[in-house]
Amino acid sequence: MLTFLLVIAILIQTVATVFALRLVRTTKYNSVWILFIIGFFLLSVEHIVQLCREIGGYEPGSWVVYLGIIISMCLSIGVMYAHKLFKYIDRLNRQHQLLNRRILTAVLRTEEKARSHFSKELHDGLGPLLSSAKMSLTALAHDERTPDQREIIDNTTYVIDEAIRSLREISNNLSPHVLNDFGLARGVQNFIEKSAAIHDVKIRFTTNLRSERYDKEVEVILYRVICELINNSLKHSGCKAIHLSLAQNSAELALDYTDDGRGFNPQAMMDCGMGLSNIASRVNSLGGTFQIVSSKGKGMRAAIRIRTQEEPHRKTSKRK
Questions:
Q1: Beta-strand relationship, 202-207 and 289-294
Q2: Which domain holds residue 19?
Q3: DSSP label at 26?
Q4: Cα angle vertex 69, ends 67, 75, to 5°?
Q5: Is 274 found in the same domain as 198?
């Protein structure tokens, strides 16, 4: 039985030596695997000596003791170097995460810059042209016209008014002017009022923010996240009420969001879309945290936390 176990041990150590040989060139700290190769090889030698003693009665000399000491030293030093290897891998992972965050931040900044540019072009370029066309039609309306001609002018004026209104909405969605001029709380409140006006859903917004201004990136990303959450609830959840709370707590900006909709599987929605993965990416670009809890028939709850430098001390106000 002992002979069989010694043979198994020799085979296992040989396989381990082969794997260690293959790992020598795959990592920066190849000395780790060299030490393990030496250790496993010497262990095999030691077990071969024990096997010879078991089978043929061979009695090794005192050198076996030194062999054991060398094996212990190789494996011990290898373990210490392995600790450095794990620290190196951890450092690489952190650098990779930081690089991904920087890339995502750059993409989001480019996206917002493009949105702002398109909004300005629409507002400053197409807007004046439509206004000029409306003024020309108004001037024509002052002259005497047949009923058919007046009807055509009135219809055309109405179409231009609708085009101007749509243009303003598109421009504002691309780059919300209230957000840029008055800050996060006013921007969110303005979006909620517009959403509540066209949907039969009660949206309750509470905040302790007033005129606080944050970094533009924080304001824009958090505004987009809130809009995405509300739009998801309005389009997909079948909810009757939404409640969101936006508060500055010490050095942390906290958003808590709930709806009473039909609920869903958060992981499945993260995988297939619905904007949740986009929300997580945006929050992650700010170094924040995003947690969402939902189940069928029980609505959903989302919590977002972002570190800031602001520390306002004001009482919470309620906006409905």
A1: unpaired
A2: 2-102
A3: T
A4: 100
A5: yes
